[in-house]
């Protein structure tokens, strides 16, 4: 595993564009820290400081930071599709196979890289959230700090699933631009199917079915936290209540998609004439 991971990291670090995109991918989450220190002047009447509103209290901070950080995953998605695009355009995929790397090892090297960067990003968000929370939170008891850390697991699974999908599209299209276009097409298809199901049955059936789709299931891992913040400020408003938890069955759905995308990527490579 380490040999395959090392081989892939060397390729990425030798590519200037990949290095820049990886750097951006890891720097962007730090904007969460800027968000925590943001002070908004409301028409000169008063200053609104987000940190003082309690939105960075434990355990809600785990939900907030992982949600915002997951919005930056597109930058590393470009790296993933570029990994495949460069292999085909530079003919290195054929050379690697000639040099003794099996097709299975080739796909595994990509997957190990995905897992590695997903893990690094998760650890980074964990440290950022912990630092902000310990600074701003009114609750620092160990049990409260640990509560909600399942969002970190959901964040890791979400990244791994999304990047595996990008890997599959990269293998399918062989070109970075086309692979990214497939992501947009899949998004459109999922909503078309949702519309057809809602028309044929009802919105409830359509929504439950859509939650099993690739992109939607990944999004559902970490729902938007704004309604939860409103709930904490207005506990008597029953209309604000919603299920914001990171559920294990949702992670299993995404892990199944992840396994399928890696398998399909391998099958494509195995059957393709290089």
UniProtKB/TrEMBL annotation:
An example Gene Ontology molecular-function term: ABC-type transporter activity
Gene Ontology cellular-component annotations: plasma membrane
Coiled-coil region(s): none
Top-level division of the source organism's lineage: Bacteria
Keywords, sorted A to Z: Membrane, Transmembrane, Transmembrane helix
Annotated transmembrane regions: 20-40, 60-84, 111-136, 151-170, 177-199, 251-269
Keyword Aminoacyl-tRNA synthetase belongs to the record: no
PANTHER family documented for this protein: INTEGRAL MEMBRANE PROTEIN-RELATED (PTHR37305), MEMBRANE PROTEIN (PTHR37305:SF1)
Name of this chain's protein: ABC transporter permease
Organism of this sequence: Allotamlana fucoidanivorans
């Amino acid at each position: 595993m380490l040999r395959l991971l090392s081989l892939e990291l060397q390729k990425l670090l030798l590519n200037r564009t990949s290095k820049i995109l990886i750097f951006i991918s890891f720097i962007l989450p730090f904007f969460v820290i800027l968000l925590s220190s943001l002070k908004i002047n409301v028409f000169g009447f008063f200053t609104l400081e987000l940190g003082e509103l309690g939105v960075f209290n434990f355990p809600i901070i785990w939900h907030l930071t992982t949600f915002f950080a997951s919005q930056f995953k597109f930058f590393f998605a470009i790296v993933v599709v570029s990994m495949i695009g460069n292999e085909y355009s530079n003919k290195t995929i054929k050379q690697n196979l000639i040099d003794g790397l099996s097709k299975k090892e080739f796909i595994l090297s990509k997957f190990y890289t995905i897992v590695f960067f997903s893990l690094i990003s998760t650890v980074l968000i964990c440290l950022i959230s912990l630092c902000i929370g310990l600074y701003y939170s009114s609750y620092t008891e160990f049990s409260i700090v640990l509560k909600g850390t399942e969002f970190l697991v959901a964040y890791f699974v979400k990244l791994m699933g999304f990047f595996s999908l990008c890997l599959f599209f990269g293998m399918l299209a062989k070109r970075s631009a086309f692979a990214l276009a497939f992501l947009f097409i899949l998004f459109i298809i999922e909503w078309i199917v949702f519309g057809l199901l809602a028309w044929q049955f009802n919105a409830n059936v359509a929504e439950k079915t859509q939650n099993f789709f690739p992109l939607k299931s990944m999004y559902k891992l970490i729902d938007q936290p704004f309604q939860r913040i409103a709930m904490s400020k207005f506990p008597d408003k029953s209309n604000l209540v919603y299920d914001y938890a990171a559920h294990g069955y949702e992670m299993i759905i995404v892990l199944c998609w992840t396994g399928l995308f890696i398998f399909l990527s391998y099958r494509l490579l195995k059957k393709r004439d290089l």
